[in-house]
Structures are given as structure tokens and as C-alpha cells.
């Protein structure tokens, strides 16, 4: 007997017989079909929804908490932006959040104590926890970090992956360094989505790590050796920020003065490129620089700090007034070097604000050493002085040195604080007219906070039309840390932002073609083609794709996958 497959079918139409219903007959037959609706138990529906929410990434609420420096704050903004772009809801209410993302600081014991206590509190409330920042990067094996997912300081572009796995109950630790052709990079890309804490201020980290080996510093264990971003990347990021309504840029790193030494350039070269793209009325603030790396650039730095779009402000931490203590700290400069920097800039940049840091009670600090510190502060009367009691950080050489008694450290901290409070740096400015850039609201909500040419704080009336503007004010009152000004009669008001600033909580860095990923607060789920529990790798997220054709293909495949999944669910 011949098999049915022995006959050759020339065309698909050959398998349709005359007895088969025509398309018209099939259409009429479908009209007579009455669908039966299966009643569903409401409790079952609720259970199904809850189960789906618990495993589908991109539907949860996340609370992001950051401690520490402006570099760390920028990292926190990037992580929040990526999560929001993927569909997660970033909330300021920790109790309503499903997951806490805790971004830590390792500089001092109190900051780590707050971090550790927050982990404990989250666990007591049955919250999912992901930790980031310098503490877990430097000491990932700490007992209180066991079982927790960790995002390393150079892995913030993979925050979505880590959060996804944490929500599923898995523990993931990404602590590696980013390298290209064997060379360490500055970190994650600068064009990632971001939620700025203040939509008017962009924080740009120009490099990570440093060239020093200070005996008290734990941050070096986390951030490592110097690695700089290219000037082109940094200029592009600045341009993008201004296109999103930013009117003030902060350059930050562990040591801005060391920028570029690893890639054959330097800080002044970067700054001259940046000032070319700053709109009129917008301002740039330079971050902390250690004395050794600014000494060779003093002439150029003075010129840059006189530029009308750069604040005449520089943060140069001296840490102590004693050469003996500086040697024990391995700070690689002496007090004469610091004075050379301060004196040169004060002469060439009239009115410049020199901010500095002091550590009280470093191991081996004698009473004579401390007196030298008091003399230095008395001589320069720093308007901005950060006073820190010494805390021995685990794993640092200073922690093994003979410690100054706790009561002595406290006494010296009080004495230095009293000296700082004894002078008022702004009294002579009462009655003067100044241009100020208004960028935020005061802590008490009573004023707007502005800064003048020297990055001195000026409180102005809280009038909404002033926010984000540069205005003229008359100074009528001065305090220890601020001045108060009223808008000048017939004063000019300048709007530095070239476009409307983003709203608070709005994600920056999203181009139009990728905004569907974050519209209505929900992401398009990237279901696995093979029906497995996993999702597409977040290395394929739009901001991780470089080719525009690949990006379009990714979007098409994502939409096709969703349609396929919905169709299969229906039929």
C-alpha cells in the first residue's frame, strides 16, 4: 500500500478538498458560537497577582539611601535612574518600599554604623536589601553583609541585574573592576540614565581612586588607584546636562588635582575644555584637590578660577598644621606647600574661598602638634572648615598606631570648633550688591539657597520665579555660615538653563526611542524566548547598547516577544 507521503503535494491548496468548508462558511459558523465565561474566584485572582508581582522584576518600589561624598551621591543618582528607566518605582518612603538599596561610605565609623543599622532595620521589616558603595567594596566579607547582594563601585551600570536577582531571593556580588585593553577605567559610562537629587545640579565624577597612600584612609581600599575618564566623555556629559536644564555642575573625585595623570593629560586642560560649553549664567564648581597635585598648575588654576563661569572656590584639605603629623599620615606634602597654594591663589584670585579639612587626634599627635594646627586656622581664618575627630578604620596602618586617648581627641575637637566659631567671615559684605545663582531650598523651607561668585551661601526670599536663575541681590545680614540678600531694585535676572529643567524624580539620559521603557512607571518585560524563569540580560538594556541599529532591533524583538506571550496566554 502506498504511503500517504508518497504523493507529491505541488501546492498547499492541493490538500483542500471540495467537501471542506469555504472561508465564508467558517465565518458564518463562528458567529453562532457563544463563548462561555468561566467564573474565577476573587481570592484566586488576588493570590495570582501577588505571586506575579513577587517575581516579575520592574514592578517593585525601591528606596535608595546614600551616605558620604558627592562622588557617592552621583553613583546613587545613576543607580536610581537605571532602576526607574527599567520600570521600578523609586520612592522616598522607606516603609512602603519592597527593596532598600543602601549606598555606603567608609570614611568614618559613624557613617558605617548608620549603614549597618539600616541593614538591620530593613531585615527586621522583611525588606529585600542590596548594598553598594565603599564599605562592601572594601570589606565584602563582613559578618553583617553575609547573604546580601552587593554592587561594586565600578559596577553601578549593572544595578538592574543585581536588584532583579535580589527580588527573586538570590544573592549576587559584583565587585570587579572595569578594564579596556588591560587598563583600568574610571568606572561605569557617564551617559547612563540618572535621577538627580537636585534637577538643577549635575555631579560629574572626573576620575576614581587616587595616587596617595594615606595611612588613615579606607576609601583607597574601595576606589583603588587613579583611573580618569577622557576629556571627551566629560565634555559630552556636561553638554547633555545643560540640555536637560542643569545650571550648575560639580566636578568630583577622590582627588580632582590628580586628574589625567594616568591618561596623559591634566586638570587645567580638562577645565578649559569644559568652560567652552558652559552656557551664560551657569556655573562650575571644582571639587577637592590635594596640595601636591595642584602645585604644578597654580598659574593655570588661578586663570580658570577667575573665569566668570567658574566659582572662585577651592577645597584643599590640609588635615593638620604639623609637619610631623603629616609625615605619619603619609600626605606627601608639608605645611609650606599648603601655604604656597593658599597664598598664591589668594593673591591672584581676590576673594577666593579656600575650604579645608582638619583631623583632630591623629595617632601620635602631641599637644605641640595641635597648637600648630590652631595657629594655622587662626592665620587663615578659613570660612569653610570641616573638623573631624579621628576614627581608626579597620585595615588601615593608622588603626595599628598608638591612639590618642578618646577624651583628648574630644577636647581638641571642641577647642578647634570654638576657634572656628570665634570669627565671622562675611560681616564686611553687608551692604554690598552681588550676583547669585539660586539652586535649591533651605533645610527649614523658609528661603531659597543661592551662591555668589565665591561659592558663599546667600539666602534669598522664596519666590518660585527665582529658582534656577541668576539674580542681583543686596546683602543685608551676615551669619557664621551664610548671608541674607534681597532682590535688588531694577536688578537683572538671567536664566542660565537653555531648556526647561527636568522635574524632581524625572529620569535624565533617556532618548525618545527608549522612553517607552519608563512610561507610566512600568517597563516592557523582556520575556525569555524559551519560557524559562529568567529575563533578557540587562547588559542588553538600551543604555548598554551602542549601535543604533542594534537598539532598534532590541526594541522590535521586545515588542514582538510581548505580543507572542500575550497571544499564547489568550489561546
How would you describe the overall organization of this protein?
The chain has helices at residues 23-31, 42-55, 70-86, 109-124, 134-138, 159-167, 219-223, 231-242, 267-275, 291-294, 298-305, 323-329, 335-348, 367-380, 406-421, 548-570, and strands at residues 61-66, 89-90, 99-104, 128-133, 149-151, 173-174, 179-180, 183-184, 201-205, 207-208, 227-228, 248-252, 283-286, 313-315, 353-360, 384-389, 433-441, 447-451, 457-461, 470-478, 483-487, 493-494. The chain is an alpha/beta fold and 571 residues long. A 6-stranded parallel sheet has the order 2-1-3-4-5-6, sandwiched between helices. It has a 5-stranded mixed beta barrel with strand order 17-18-19-21-20. The protein has a 3-stranded parallel sheet with strand order 9-12-13, sandwiched between helices. The longest helix is centred in the C-terminal third of the chain and has 23 residues, at 548-570. Mean pLDDT is 86; it is low at 1-16, 45-53, 516-540 and 545-551.
Keywords:
single chain, six-stranded parallel beta sheet, 22 strands
- Which band does the percent of strand residues land in? 15-25%
As a percent range, the share of helical residues equals 25-40%
- Average residue-wise pLDDT: 86
Low-confidence stretches: 1-16, 45-53, 516-540, 545-551
| Helical/strand content category | alpha/beta
Radius of gyration: 30 Å
Major sheet description? 6 strands, parallel
Oligomer: single chain
**Molecular shape:** globular
Number of helices: 16
Strand order of the largest sheet: 2-1-3-4-5-6
State the end-to-end distance.
Answer: 39 Å
What is the count of β-strands? 22
